[in-house]
Design a protein that fits this description.
heterodimer, A: alpha/beta, Rossmann fold, 2 domains, six-stranded parallel sheet, 11 helices, B: mainly alpha, 14 helices, 2 strands
Chain lengths: 380, 353
Amino acid sequence: MKKLFKLFTVLAASMVLMLSLFACGEAPQEEKSEEPAKVEEAVASKEEAKIVKAGFVYVSPVGDAGYSYAHDLGRKSVDALDFATTAFVESVPEGADSERVIRNMARKGFDVIFTTSFGYMDPTMKVAKEFPDTKFMHCSGFKKSTNVTNYFGRIYQSRYLTGMVAGAMTKSNKLGYVAAFPIPEVIRGINAFTVGARQVNPDAEVRVVWTKTWYDPALEKDAAKSLLDAGCDIIAQHQDSPAPQEAAQEAGAYSIGYNSDMSSFAPKAHLTSAIWNWGPMYAKIVGQVRDGSWQGDQAVWWSMQDGVVDIAPMGPMVPEDVKIIVESAKADLMKGNDICFVGPIKDQDGNIKIAEGEKATDAQLHDMMWFVEGVVGTVK
Amino acid sequence: MPLKIRKRDDPWKWGALVVFLGALLFSLAISGLLLAGQGKDALEGLYVLWQGSFGNLWALEGALLKAIPLFLCSLGVAIAFRMQIWNIGAEGQFALGAIGATWMALLFPDLPGIILLPLMFVMAFLFGGFWAFIPAFLKLKLRVNEIISTLMLNYIAILLLDFLVFGVWKDPASFGFPMTPEFTSGAVIPHIGESRVHWGILFCTVVGIGLWAFMRYTRLGFELQASGQGSRVAKYAKIRYGMLVMLVMTLSGGFAGWAGCVETSAVLNRLQPSLMVGYGYTAIVVAWLARLEPLNIAFASFLLAALRVGVENLQLELQIPASFGVIMEGMILLTVLAGQFFLTYKLERKHRS
């Protein structure tokens, strides 16, 4: 008797499951019938107010002083516009979960959606296909379509400048770099940092440790310590946690931050930071969405000239003459003269990668999977 | 009124349901208070949560999709737990399953789905099963504690996955980003009709019912349950305990491997590090929440997935921090688990004597 009852429950449950499946299968039809009304409604409300709804998807919490924090500062300057409202979802894992979050935003009528992490690329493309009227801005990837534009900033330009500061300030000529993952974005930053450092100090070398994390304070601190133990007297980093900064300060060394001005975490150590400043471009994009001049299918890579990347104010320990050199290089960059990868540039084995008088092309930069001369470490 | 705790003589009929709903209500009430504490409208918040979890077809779809890998992993964990083998390694077995499936997908890209997909499932089961077999073997031969070995193997599995996608399997067209090429259509589990739910759900149903029937109606299944009383009991009953441990662990890992296969094939369409979002660990919670019963596991994984989906909606609509969702999930799990106390004990008025 009891057995029968159990069997019955199992059968009933599987029936319910199957039924819900059929229900899901029918879903799109129902949605279709509702669509015209929805579109009219949307058009009407847009003409009334012309308010642009901008959505932001972040990979980490906004309170981390790091990558997402910087994007959220950008969102806030969009929110300050009188013709825009914004919303965000933080700590969204890359992959399947992000697809659902992005779709939910598109479904709720957001006009433009900024997906700010590399791993959101495929999900963004999938959702963009389903919502051709919604505009998507994907950060740091390489795919695009009629309603998806990918964007990023030339943070390597900031890295170059911070490298100059580090090269001028080091006594041991050993610079430590706590790096996240061996992908072109990070490698490019290390290379620019190294070229910048050797510009002012040809004896400088950069030692790289991979943590394979974006945010793991304990691990990143340990990595910084190991570099300090190896004789490095300046620590640069490519993660979101300020832990390497703290490690440098505890050891009486100097540090170079990333993402946002990290001086508050290690005021005695912090020389400067390579920082993101998304506000002006985000505001511009949302303005374009509003007046209809927004274009899809673009790949934009904003530079220091556009105001998207910068360095934090240099600390009081940086002497005036160093500041002057760095400021003059920054002035070059601000004029649109990209001085970071000008040949001759050799790789670690001494092979010429960028010939004398030439500049690295964007394709070379996008695909950069080799270290320049002066880096101690491997890209694996 | 003085109360005392007494052990129940008979199981409480419908008790599980009452306790579950009570715990749910309790934690929702606290969540409402927390929302109010943030200056949000508590009732609106709970409504938005409901809307995002169950109130829409798209919400149900999202929850079903997310429940699939959770269900398979949890099923695997549960059969090991039933035998009191503490397999904490579903995360790593999940990764290995994904690796096995991807290997087939990359090796035979031109095969039609009807051959390639079964091949991927078989390989995922073998890989995941093998990963779980290692700790079983170590436990039997060297008396290595399986809690430690399964946990440690998780890290190795994830590093192995990283090694593959950062190295030999990296898509040459990915600008150096760690991911394999996109699978060919034969390696992707198709969607059901126009919905976003894929056929993996049918697979889950079959596996779930199959396992339930196996435990219920076969001699081996009975032996598994009996061995749960401990190795000495098993030996007394002349059950081949060692063989069963290896079998159960292989099954357990195989199920997690299937989850990895389904997720890679149907959802991501390629192997990349973002596959690993902790299903293997959540599965342990689901298994306990469901008291290791296959049918309950189906409900519990769906509920947890729905909650996750609903909390995302709550985040978007009310702009509350992501950690609020984690707090809420934790609270529901804790109250439900704590509530099970009332299934074995009851409160009684103290009689004056």
